[in-house]
Fold this protein.
Amino acid sequence: MDEKIGIIQAYVKTVLREPGSHGPDHTFRVLRMCERIGRDEGADMNILLPAALLHDIARPAEKERGIPHEEEGARMAEEFLTSIFFDKDLIPGITQAIRTHRYRSDRVPETLEAKILSDADKLDAMGAIGIARTFLRAGEHGGEITDAAGHIVEKLLKLKERMHTESAARIAVRRHGYLAGFLEELANEMDAAGI
C-alpha cells in the first residue's frame, strides 16, 4: 500500500500546483489529520488515506468550469485509481468519502472513513489554520477583513456541531474556542478603529 500511496501523492502534486486556501498544503494537513483520527477511530486506512489525498483534486476544474469538485473529484479518483491498478474493492469507499466530504454538499457521509474525511477537512477550516485560510480565501476573491470575518461567522463557527466522530469533536472544541476568541478580538479592534 505504501507504494500506491506514493504514486497517489505524486499525482496529487501534479494536479494541485497552485498555493492558496485549497492548495496542496491543505491536502497534506487533511491527510495527517485523517491519520490521527483514523487511528483513534479504527478506520480502514487503505480507504481513508487515498480519499484524503484525492479529496480536492478537482478544485482546479471547479475554479475553471464551475463543476462541483466533490463530484468531479470522485470521478477523477476512480479513473486514476483504476489506471494504477488500485484494489477495485476499495475504490467505492474512497469515492464515497470524496463525494460526501464537502460542507455545502447535501450528501451525508455514511462510512466511518467518509465521516473522518469530512471531519478532517472541516478541522482544517478551524483554529489558527482556519483563520489563516479564511484570509487567504478572502484575498483570492478580492475581499477584505470584513469579508473574512463574515465567513468565520457564517460557516466556521458552525463547524464544531458538524463533527461525526468523537475524536474530531474533541479537537473541534479547542479550535472553535480559538476562532470565537479571535473573532471577538477582531470586533474589538475594528470598533476601536471606527470600522
Notes: Residues 125-195 form a domain with the Methane Monooxygenase Hydroxylase; Chain G, domain 1 fold (CATH 1.20.58.1910). The two ends are 54 Å apart (CA to CA). Residues 166-192 form the longest helix (27 residues). Residues 30 and 186 are 27 Å apart (CA to CA).
